[in-house]
Amino acid sequence: MYASPIRPRPTGELCETAHPKLPGVDLLPLPFILLSALIFGLLVGSFTNVLIWRLPRGENISFPPSHCPNCDHALAPRDLVPVLSWLSLRGKCRYCAAPIKPRYPVIELISGVAYALIAYFYPPALYGLGTLGLTLFFTILLAGSAIDLDTYTIPDELTLPGVGLGLGFAALAGSGLAAGGLPNFAEALAGALTGAGLLMTIDLIGSWVLRRFRERQYPDAPIGHQQIALALLVGAWAGPLWGMGAALLSAAVNAGTRRVVRIPELLTLGGALLSLALGVNLGRDPLELVNGGLQGAGAAALIAGLYWWIQYAWIQKGTGQTEAEEDAPFDPSAMGFGDVKLAGAIGAFLGVSGVLVSVGVAVFAGAILGAAQMLLKAENRLKFGPYLAIGAVVAMLWGDAVVGWYRGLLGL
């Protein structure tokens, strides 16, 4: 599957004519729509703060009810009004006077403004559930970014369900319930696999370079980086489905033998890098090779992520071995696996072109920050998740303009 253009959307005065409205839905006044979206976004922003606090700590997001983290006193409804409660309390807990971080109202404001922007670019009367899908997508981006800034991790509870949500809303795209604004299912699937595969390939090759082209000391079992690298190679030549099948076969061998049956990275990664040159000489389309390899690696990466998410949850709840698992030795990594899964979610919601724009904007923004950090001699550990999120927002709201500008720059 090749990159598809970001789906066009009507804006401004064209909203009522460029796209048929949903059956039985009247177009509401724009100010009312934006105000409603703003209020809804503020309320969701309050819940987003719950996700940001509780998910990294492994806490239930619905029980116990909202309470002060300092004195554990349950919060009354008057304490939970977005932004206004924080202002009226002057940033302190009503019950113990402990300071409340300004981040809480900031997250609520960002959520509210973003929901209003999404409603402006994707009016609900025209896009139906597509608008709802994009607002949920933004909440995933916002919560994931804030958690990444705090912990250098992006919880699987956000990214992997995010992939499923993106594919689910895409399946509704042609049903009249989500009329436009989102890719169709085939485009969403291609976007999810390409996004995850692109960042996974960067991680595989970058980590190989960091190890000075030596083999991994601590390979995952039964499925992990070795199987993903195999999927990259096989997918380039035989397509994503065969790449995913090769990864699953290797994982089955590992599970059956109860040990790691090594696949040399000189063969998989080295072979993948040579595939472009060999493919051109053999008359293969280089874009087809890249596309097949990335999507094969993306499929294997998302399957591995799902496996380890389930496995981690089982260890945490069933045996209490979580700390030992986290303290286990590991090989150096060029990119976090959470970023890979987040890119998969972005692709599921925005398609191939959308995820490529997202990654491009993220790399550009990250390069600027990296240069600034070098000049200021600050920490050089980059939290890439927030930049991916910024890129995704740019792609969601202005992606077609970015693609048009880039094509014009190339004279296409």
Could you characterize what this model shows?
The protein is mostly helical. Among the domains are: 18-127, no CATH class; 212-331, no CATH class. The protein is built from 14 helices and no strands. It has helices at residues 30-54, 84-88, 103-121, 124-127, 129-151, 156-171, 185-210, 225-238, 240-257, 265-281, 286-318, 322-326, 337-376, 384-410. Helix 5 (129-151) runs antiparallel to helix 6. The longest helix has 40 residues, at 337-376. The chain is globular and about 70 Å long. Residues 1-20 have low confidence and may be disordered.
> Would you tell me the structural class of the helices and strands?
mainly alpha
What kind of oligomer do you see?
Answer: single chain
Helix content: 55-70%
- Uncertain segments: 1-20
Rg measurement, Å? 23 Å
Strand content: under 5%
